[in-house]
Amino acid sequence: xxxxxxxxxxxxxxxxxxxxxxxxxxxxxxxxxxxxxxxxxxxxxxxxxxxxxxxxxxxxxxxxxxxxxxxxxxxxxxxxxxxxxxxxxxxxxxxxxxxxxxxxxxxxxxxxxxxxxxxxxxxxxxxxxxxxxxxxxxxxxxxxxxxxxxxxxxxxxxxxxxxxxxxxxxxxxxxxxxxxxxxxxxxxxxxxxxxxx
Length: 197
Description:
Layout: E1 2-8, H1 16-32, E2 36-42, H2 47-56, H3 61-72, E3 75-83, E4 86-87, H4 89-97, E5 107-114, H5 122-133, E6 137-138, E7 143-146, H6 147-151, H7 157-174, H8 190-195
Parallel strand pairs: 1-2, 1-3, 3-5, 5-6, 5-7
Antiparallel strand pairs: 3-4
């Protein structure tokens, strides 16, 4: 069974960011049409651990498990609220902790939430460049949800969610599941370590 990792950088509970993340995950699993494990990571729960990992250079405890969930997943949904016309600091800190190669080629669906439609371009001028740097495979359709998208029956949000979920599912189907690498599988023999080779 493949795993779909979902990152929500919302600060509140409940949050529109988490609501959007859940809807994107549901659309993706529906489009996949097979059993898929969905692992949702609320970044607010790991805020202190992310700062510690930034300072020490490596994640530990439950945050390490969250990082491994993301780096071993077949696909990723990443959703952030927009603050000051860009992604949140919490969102950026998580991706600063990851190894640069850890998302290479990974299918990713981007989403963002904000108070007004004015911030919708934050996905294209802030989020896409970040994931291009990480060499992830970002789907063409990203989903931005403003406050008015949640209360109106006239919104195109459900159609955008369905289209983006189908695009992520197609990329996940086309890409083989990542193999888990065991760093201890081929240890250096002790005599070589002592010889300095």
